[in-house]
Design brief:
The protein has about 350 residues and is an alpha+beta fold. Helices cover about 35% and strands about 25% of the residues. Helix 3 crosses helix 5. The chain is elongated and about 75 Å long. The model has no long low-confidence stretch (mean pLDDT about 85). It holds the Pfam family MrcB_N.
Length: about 350
Amino acid sequence: MQERGNLIRSDLAQELRHRLPELSRAFDPLFDDLAVEGSDGIGRKTEAPWVRLYSKAMSPTPREGFYVVIHFAADGSACFFTIGCGSTVWSGGDLRPVSDAQLTAKTSWARSVVERRWQTLAPFTDTISLGARASLPRTFEKATVLARRVPVESVDASDLDGLLFAAAERLSAIYLAQLDQRDVAPADQDARDLEAIVRPLHRRTRAQGIGLTASERKAVELRAMLLAIQFLQSEGFTCDDKSAVEPFDILARRDGQALKIEVKGTTSELCDSILMTRNEIELHRQEKGATGLVIVSRIKLDRNGAAPSASGGVVEAQMQWDIDQWMLESIAFKVHRPT
C-alpha cells in the first residue's frame, strides 16, 4: 500500500506534470492555471487511488468543479481515464458524499455538453467499476461523467497520451460551458448578479461564471420574447408585447380567452428555478388560471460582432400556470429604517 501511494502521489503525478505543456494545447487559453495532484487516501489508505488534472480556478479542490481523473481499480486490474466532478463535502470533520440527485444532475449536464460538441461520447463510453467496498470510491463512480477502461494487460498497447489529451479537450469544453453559466439555473444566475449589487466587495470566482453584460442580457431577453411570440402564434394566439409597461411580458388572446404571459430567457441548460419580482408573483397568484409562463432555455450568444447576438433556444410553456405548485424562496429583502 505504501509503495502504491508513492507511485500515485509522486511518480505518476510528476509524469503528468511533465506533460502539462502538451496537455495545455487541449484547453482554451483562458485556462492557463493547470495543475496535477494525486491521492491514495485522506488519513488512511483508500481502495481507489486517483490522480487528477484540473484548472485551479475552476476546481480549487477535489470537492469542487470538474476535472480529468485517472482512477485505479481496487484489485489493480484496470485503470480508468475519466472526467469526474466533486462528490463530497466536509461535514462533521469528515468527508460526506453529496446526494445522488445532485451528482446525476451534474454528470448528465456535463455529458450533454460533450455530446453536443463531438456528437458522441466516444471513446469514453465505458462504465466505471472500481470494485471497492468502501462508500467513498462508490461515490467516485457516481460522480463520473465519462470513462474509458484500460485493462492492465492492455496498458502497453494503448494510446494513453491520446486518451489523456482527448479527456482534456472535453474538460475544456465543460469549463467553457460553465463560464457561460450553462450549468446554472436562471434564478441562480440572477441571484449571483443580485449578490454582486448587495455585496460589491465579495469576490466572484471564475468557476461561478463570467455572467452576462447588459447588452448580452438584452440580446437574450429579445431572443426569448421572439421565440415566445412565435410559439404562442403557432398555438393560435395573437400577441401584444407588454414588457415595458406591465408586470408581465405578453398579452396573448385566443377565442375570447386572454392570458398574461411571463417570459424568461436564459443561456442555461438547467431550468428548475427562475427569479421573479414581488409584483410578478402577486399577479400570478391573483389571476391564477389566466396567466402563463414561457421559459426559453439554451439560448446561444455570439460575442464576436460589434454587438452580441442571440440564436437558438428551447421553448417550455406552462399555460394556465399555477405558481403555488412551485416553491418560493426569499433571497433578498428591502430593509427600512424605523420611522
